[in-house]
Every structure is written in C-alpha cells, then in structure tokens.
Amino acid sequence: MQVRVELPADPLIEYLSLCTAIAEAVHPASARHYRGIECIVNKMVTHHVPMAPPPPNEKWPFPVEFQSVLLSEGGRTLDQLLPDRADVGQMSALELPLESGPPRQMVELSMPYRLDENDRHALQEILPNLPPLQYPISDAEQAAFLDAWFRLKERPAWEPVLVTREYIERRKAAQLAALAEHQQALQEEFKSGGIEALDGHHVPVPVLIGGSFISRQQAIAYLERRGFSYVSAELAVGAEAKNWPAASEAERKRESKRASVGLRVREKQSSANPRAEEGDSKGARMAESTGSESSGKGASQSSTSNTGATAGMVARLPRVMELTGLGRSSIYNRMDERSKHYDPTFPRSFKLGSADAGATGWDEDAIKSWVAAQAAARP
C-alpha cells in the first residue's frame, strides 16, 4: 500500500513542515488516523508445534508463551482428528505408523504478523457487523470487540491485534527517525542544486533550515522520487478510507489547473514591459509585510477571489499600488481582457456602493495572496 503524504495547498511549503508530514504518513501516530480498520494493526496467528522445553538454566532468545496441547493416542491435535466417516478405517490404514520413542510435547505458539491485502479485504466485510473502533480504545471496548469477533461464525482463523498506547509511542519514536532521514535527504538535494528555497521574505537562502520554504512543485517532485503519493490536507482531514481514490482524483485535477494558470502567468509576465517587470519585483520584495499568512495562500485561492469580494479588509487603489509595486495603468491592464498584460489570476475590484460611479476597492487578503503566488512562481 503506497504511503500518502498530506500536503498543504500553499504555493510555498515550509521545509520542516514537509518533513513532519512525511514522517506522519510513514509512521502515523495521530488519533484521527486510527479509526475502523486502521485500529487493527496486526494479526495473531496460533501454531501447534512440537517443541522440547529449554534446560532450566537457559531461556528462549525471544519472548514467547507456550501452552500445552492435548494429543490423541495417535499423536494428533484436536483440529487434525479425522471426521466420523464410513471409510475412516481404510484411511487410517494408509497412514504411516508413528516412530517409537518418548511422547512428543505439543505446544501452542502465538506470533504476530502484518496484515496483507486479503486480510484487509476480509476485515472490510466483517467490521460493519462488529462494535465500532476508534483510538483511544478502553479495556472494556477492546473486550467487547473481541467477544463479538469470536462469536462470528464466518471469520478468519487469526485474532486481531488492536492499537494500544504502547504501539502509538513506538510509532512516535519511529517518526523521529523518519523526520531526521528526510531532513538530511532534502538538505543534500539542496546542496546539490536539486532544490531551491526561500526565506519568509521570499529571498533565496544559502542554507536549508527551519523557516525555509520550497515550492509546492519541488515538494511533489521529491515525494515522487521517494515513491510517495500525496493529497491536499483539506481533502485528507475527515476523509474515510473508501473516499481516498476520489480525493486523489480531485487533487490531480487541482494540480493540473494550478500548473496551467502558473504557465499563463509566467508567459504574460515575460511579455510585459521592463517597468512593469521592475514593479513586479518590487511587489515580491514587499510581500514581507504579509508574513506567513500571505505565503500560505495558493494560486487557486487567488483565482477564487476573482469572482467577487470576500470577508476581509478593503484595499483602495493606493494601497493596491503599495502592496504590488505596480502603477495604476498596470493594475487595470491586468484586469482588462483586451490588454496583452491581462492576468486572469489578478484579483478583481468591486464597487463599494450601489451607484455605478461609486468608489471601488479590492480584497486586501486576495492582493497579498496574489503577490505571494508571483514570488513563488519565480525561479
């Protein structure tokens, strides 16, 4: 089963946040992950094996508990006894006689195994008929679940192993190791030039440390190189396991739309006059005033704000010019579909009154998000 990493929808992703998301995906430890089938972490299989006990001064090399098993006179366990059939005598005559010697000691050996795809399929059929599971699980809830499990007529021969606090603590310890592993891997790629990073002011950084940001496209490329898939965090939170394929398809469509919009923006910027380009650069530097909130807005959110005003502070034209570094004509050209500098992602102005000749304004948060998206799209 491929590991799926939850990525924020931001155009820039903080370096340590990406490493933490990967570690959580590889070794999930949050309570929201353990619901339903995810609460069954292993299966316990019981084997009947002949085994002599160790000498009194020796111990087994691994912790295990044995339980003696009753044997028939023929040396068979209960589940190996032949059924009552008319030809049972003939079948017994075909068996090889047991070797003479001391009687064997048969014991039960229970060992945990990982669930495979067949086990998970069987659980999906069975769990609707059992008490619901959700971590944390109390002793009473665990006892009620196992009691209902063993009362089922059609069930696997193994016993489910439920998630425990000790299991979660082991996962958290494994997360720390995975976090360090991907921190080191990303730093090595950064040193080799495979990854570029910016600080909170959208300025390239010489060292990849906490507080550094990499583009969403670079983060996705890194996940694909490591064999991971991804999904937007807002799609993952509260989603059920059966809805993952739909979520992934929606994410692919959203990423395709982001890529096409970003390409059109870069093409239009490359054809702009030098003065406008200089203004755009100034606007990217001025994104410092937006802080992490502005860097946390994606191109898709800027596109959404084009449809009209949203809740937030209204920015008049001088404020828009200050935030973007663009002149009056450059701003209106980006909203004019007839202009060669038209930008479909640039937030639209809206009337502040009912009169046609009334004042106009922009959503300031949408303007800040647009500035952050332009900075993220630049190499």
The helix fraction, in percent, is 40-55%
Give the strand order, joined by hyphens, for the main sheet. 4-5-3-6
Distance linking N and C termini: 35 Å
Low-confidence stretches: 84-88, 90-96, 240-251, 257-311
- What is the helix/strand order? EEHEEHEHHEHEHEHHHHHEHHEEH
User: What characterizes the major β-sheet?
Assistant: 4 strands, antiparallel
- Tally of extended strands? 11
In quaternary terms, these chains amount to single chain
Strand content: 5-15%
Structural class: alpha+beta
How many individual helices?
14
Average of the residue pLDDT scores: 74
Shape: elongated
- CA radius of gyration is 32 Å
Please write out the topology.
Elements: E1 4-7, E2 12-14, H1 15-26, E3 40-50, E4 66-68, H2 88-93, E5 106-113, H3 117-126, H4 139-151, E6 159-162, H5 165-191, E7 213-215, H6 216-225, E8 229-232, H7 233-236, H8 244-270, H9 274-285, H10 291-295, H11 299-305, E9 314-315, H12 317-324, H13 328-335, E10 350-351, E11 360-363, H14 364-377
Helix pairs in contact: 1-5, 9-14, 11-14, 12-14
